[in-house]
């Protein structure tokens, strides 16, 4: 969107996936190359740590409004997502990890709606892939610790009650799910949703600029009002998606962990 704003007069500029591959701020072509996406991640991380640190430092028995909001979110995630899926006894082993992941994903997502940042760094596969691999390691090791190495794979790939003839096929499907499909869908779902959201939001900015500045006429100014109000609608939608996608990631992570440590299959 920064690029769009600086190119007025050159016609309509549709947003593209290249927004997620900006030029290097320094270290171009080196292993320490630093660009705007990384800068946004750093800002999101510092912002999240600062807010949480501020709330924790000022926590009181009678909570302030900010402390109440944070405690409400923490309580909801712990009771309804982590304990709701894993149960309280098992959930206590994973609640800190899953809740931390929720806030991290939300912080990286919400930057797409903040003026001056204007991009969700989860729109690049790197961060989401790291988080997905982390969850993969957690549910795999948790299952092996629970059932033993041989017992876990036997429990996961050969469910009791299945007909002998279809067991090899079921084993292949379950193996693909455990090793590839679950972590891949965790990463891809989040990344694709944030890319699409960014493109739609950037499109409303670009179209408004085009109708009001580059191709100004009485007719196009009227169209510009439609796209201008679309900016507010898409921003509200992106805030909702930022929360929803963080929630879905954590919910699915809890489900996968539960499938690994559960006694039933």
From TrEMBL:
Keyword terms of this UniProt record: ATP synthesis, Cell membrane, CF(0), Hydrogen ion transport, Ion transport, Membrane, Transmembrane, Transmembrane helix, Transport
Membrane topology classification: Multi-pass membrane protein
InterPro entries documented for this protein: ATP_synth_F0_asu (IPR000568), ATP_synth_F0_asu_bact/mt (IPR045083), F0_ATP_A_sf (IPR035908)
Taxonomy, superkingdom: Bacteria
Membrane-spanning parts: 38-56, 97-117, 123-145, 186-207, 219-237, 243-261
Subcellular location(s) of the protein: Cell membrane; Membrane
The keyword Hydrolase appears for this protein: no
Entry-linked PANTHER family: ATP SYNTHASE SUBUNIT A
UniProt record similarity statement: Belongs to the ATPase A chain family.
Function: Key component of the proton channel; it plays a direct role in the translocation of protons across the membrane.
Protein name: ATP synthase subunit a
Native source organism of the sequence: Demequina capsici
